[in-house]
Amino acid sequence: MISISELKKSYRGAVAVDITQLDIPAGESFGLVGNNGAGKTTLFRIILDLIRPDSGIVMIEGANVRTSEEWKKHTGSFIDEKFLIDYLTPEEYFGFLAKIYGLTDQDLQVHLSKFEVLFNNEILGKRKYIRDLSKGNKKKVGIAAAFIGNPAIVMLDEPFENLDPTSQIHLKRIIHESRSEKTFLISSHDLNHVTDICTRIVLLEKGKVLLDEQVNEQTLFKLNDYFSGNVNSEAT
Ligand SMILES: Nc1ncnc2c1ncn2[C@@H]1O[C@H](COP(=O)(O)OP(=O)(O)OP(=O)(O)O)[C@@H](O)[C@H]1O
């Protein structure tokens, strides 16, 4: 369970995140949507203790992320390319993480085999440094890394961005297959994908929760209306 209370973050007086209460139960596939600048990445960064909020608390499994290290053992994430180590090859990077999480070489091979189709023969065995991979392939490395150690919680910021359509489909399959055993937090501008893989959608506007609902047959229509400007905030 992730519990967010009275969370506020502003930059030079401009609100980036303002959330009174948001609870994400274990096993939920939580989708976060919102226009550019709505506060999605800021929220994810605060949850991961990468940014200090002005006020408020984020708890993961009962541990305050600001003061505990405990949550890190069961939280995998990929927010952006800064998570990667550019001067390593993907194999070296995965091996480095495997050591941190106490995986054997065999464990790591089993893990990576789940990403074989997504990797499309472009990631492993290429003797390329991560810095020389395409944006989409870097994203694949980061996503596969987020799953290392079999974390109970996986947070992915815009995972479909820069992936070709085939890779997007493979990534959706990977997420679908592990939905029963993990809590996912996924931000995305792709309304079709996010409503397809998530069980709950939260729409942020100027840092505030504008819509919070279990995905149903109306959700995609509502979101399309909102993003096409057909409704105002109150009507959503
Ligand atoms: N380091 C920073 N300094 C100043 N303002 C910031 C900083 N980081 C974020 N912001 C501001 O906070 C607000 C929320 O930004 P954030 O990146 O969280 O939005 P987002 O929903 O992830 O947007 P996008 O869809 O474009 O990725 C924006 O107004 C942004 O300009």
TrEMBL record:
<dbReference type="InterPro" id="IPR027417">
    <property type="entry name" value="P-loop_NTPase"/>
</dbReference>
<dbReference type="InterPro" id="IPR051782">
    <property type="entry name" value="ABC_Transporter_VariousFunc"/>
</dbReference>
<keyword id="KW-0067">ATP-binding</keyword>
<dbReference type="GO" id="GO:0005524">
    <property type="term" value="F:ATP binding"/>
</dbReference>
<feature type="domain" description="ABC transporter">
    <location>
        <begin position="2"/>
        <end position="231"/>
    </location>
</feature>
<dbReference type="InterPro" id="IPR017871">
    <property type="entry name" value="ABC_transporter-like_CS"/>
</dbReference>
<keyword id="KW-0813">Transport</keyword>
<protein>
    <submittedName>
        <fullName>ATP-binding cassette domain-containing protein</fullName>
    </submittedName>
</protein>
<dbReference type="InterPro" id="IPR003439">
    <property type="entry name" value="ABC_transporter-like_ATP-bd"/>
</dbReference>
<dbReference type="Pfam" id="PF00005">
    <property type="entry name" value="ABC_tran"/>
</dbReference>
<dbReference type="InterPro" id="IPR003593">
    <property type="entry name" value="AAA+_ATPase"/>
</dbReference>
<dbReference type="GO" id="GO:0016887">
    <property type="term" value="F:ATP hydrolysis activity"/>
</dbReference>
<keyword id="KW-0547">Nucleotide-binding</keyword>
